[in-house]
């Protein structure tokens, strides 16, 4: 059944756009969803035909006819998914390597979203549709922590935090060569001019991106890093580390696969994906404002590589 909501314009909102006013007083609905309700004639007020840009006046009353969230066309699938935290507003999950986040061309199913629709039973809707709200993504080959919104208000606030660079994200990566803690890579990223499937620091149209190396453990030929990013550009860490001549081990797209390796690095040849793991995620909870932080240990495939390299390079008796 549709829900009716009645709101009155207070003096401080005099002259505001209708969609802006409604988004302020109804924070559990996104501005795009409210614009859609206005255009669909589901918002009634003192004026005749209302538009999102219609200015409001103090004392006016508006009635919203809010339809129930529509079922999504995406099918739930009982896929294994490790959920590390869940409440009424968010889900924090530990994504396995090899799983795509959202259905798309070439991946109609088997995604994080398909799995969440099966595992999470109290979605209240994102943009009027019963689906989880994806606010950031991990590449298919990257494992680790993701936060997903369960309702419009949480989705809007988390999206703002990511946009304003208020979310702390730290990754663990194994790279070729020697990289020292404290290295900062500040290079804009866009589509590679020669290959549309890749990203590049040489793109004609690019967006700012900063990657910081916060910790390093050196082996012969490779370095294990902790890397922090404030921005979240597509393939950012992979592109930045490749651009400075230290691609991520196992990353076929950005030069991280070597045909010949030293005997004590043979373990890397077992990797079936880039050695990249989203190990830490910290953000402000969208409902109560508390700081929350989550950590994920290296998955077994990556941990085994490090253990074997360390053992192979350990000094003899």
What does this structure look like?
- Strands 5, 6, 8, 9, 10, 11, 14, 15, 16 and 17 form a ten-stranded mixed beta sheet that branches. This protein has a three-stranded antiparallel beta sheet with strand order 1-3-2. Strands 4-7 form a two-stranded parallel sheet.
- It has 317 residues and is α+β, with helices and mostly antiparallel strands.
- It contains six helices and 17 strands.
- The N and C termini lie far apart (75 Å).
- The chain has helices spanning 18-25, 31-39, 112-119, 152-163, 236-243, 300-313; strands at residues 3-8, 43-44, 61-66, 70-71, 82-86, 90-95, 129-130, 133-134, 143-149, 168-176, 184-186, 190-192, 195-200, 210-218, 222-229, 276-284, 291-295.
The chain-level mean pLDDT equals 90
Radius of gyration: 23 Å
Largest sheet: 10 strands, mixed
Instruction: Determine the fraction of residues in helical runs and give it as a percent range.
Output: 10-25%
Total strand segments: 17
Q: Enumerate the spans where pLDDT stays under 50 for 5 or more consecutive residues.
A: none
- In N-to-C order, the SSE pattern is EHHEEEEEHEEEHEEEEEEHEEH
Terminal-residue CA separation: 75 Å
What's the helix count? 6
Residue fraction in strands? 25-35%
Question: Structural class of the helix and strand makeup?
Answer: alpha+beta
Assign an overall shape: elongated
